TrEMBL record:
The keyword Membrane applies. Keywords: Membrane, Transmembrane, Transmembrane helix. The chain crosses the membrane at residues 68-87, 118-135, 147-167, 187-205. The keyword Membrane applies. Residues 49-167 form the VTT domain. GO terms for cellular component: plasma membrane. InterPro entries: DedA_domain, VTT_dom. Pfam families: VTT_dom. It comes from the Bacteria. This is Membrane protein YqaA with SNARE-associated domain.
Length: 206
């Protein structure tokens, strides 16, 4: 049967289908496992941040929001330690190819040089932004930042970010979900603009 133009118009777009699939994942029994895996890998090599899954959990199961934020923070810090280890001992074989894959070499050099002046403050600042966190963790290992200071800074900045996200979407979940359902693409493109802005800041530092 041939699809009518009206049916094609009503068919959800790819990003909307991904959004709906993420909500279904957040409601399933593997939600926390997926959140932990993404949180861990994003801090060292994976390109996708855990925020969409965390938001989906807060929207679909608000009573799990704070627990999800804690789990997200713990796994992100563990992933940050992996990023630190890559920068400290495996930069030439693993860290450098990761930085080059995302075309962040110039920003990476700037961040590494900034550690001598700003220390842990640069982690606190950048961990709250859309700037790839893996860049900061690998650079910290290369710069041989004090491991305890690094761990505490990561825990603080990741915790602030994830608990803020979880609280916002838990508190305003019904309104937020209604807005997402009605204005999905406006919200999507707005969020994408923020993400692109974060990457633009990185490249301006070259």
């Amino acid at each position: 049967m041939t699809e009518t133009p009206a049916a094609a118009t009503l068919r959800p777009g790819l990003m909307r289908r991904l959004y709906d699939a993420t909500l279904r994942l957040a409601e399933g029994r593997h939600a926390m496992r997926a959140l932990g895996g993404i949180s861990f890998t994003e801090a060292s090599f994976f390109p996708v941040p855990p925020d969409p899954v965390l938001i989906a959990i807060a929207l679909s199961t608000p009573h799990k929001a704070m627990r999800a934020a804690l789990w997200c923070t713990v796994m992100s810090v563990l992933g940050a330690l992996l990023g630190y280890a890559i920068g400290s001992g495996l930069y030439e074989w693993v860290g450098k190819p990761i930085i080059e894959l995302y075309k962040l070499q110039g920003a990476f050099d700037t961040f590494r040089a900034g550690f001598s002046e700003y220390g842990a403050w640069i982690i606190l600042a950048k961990g709250l932004t859309p700037i790839p966190f893996k860049l900061v963790t690998i650079a910290s290992g290369v710069a041989e930042m004090n491991l305890l200071v690094f761990t505490l800074a990561c825990a603080l900045t990741r915790g602030l970010r994830f608990f803020a996200v979880a609280w916002l979407f838990k508190t305003f979940g019904p309104q937020a979900r209604a807005i997402m359902d009605r204005h999905f693409y406006k919200v999507f493109w707005g969020g994408l603009a923020v993400l692109v802005g974060g990457f633009a800041v990185v490249f301006l530092l070259k």
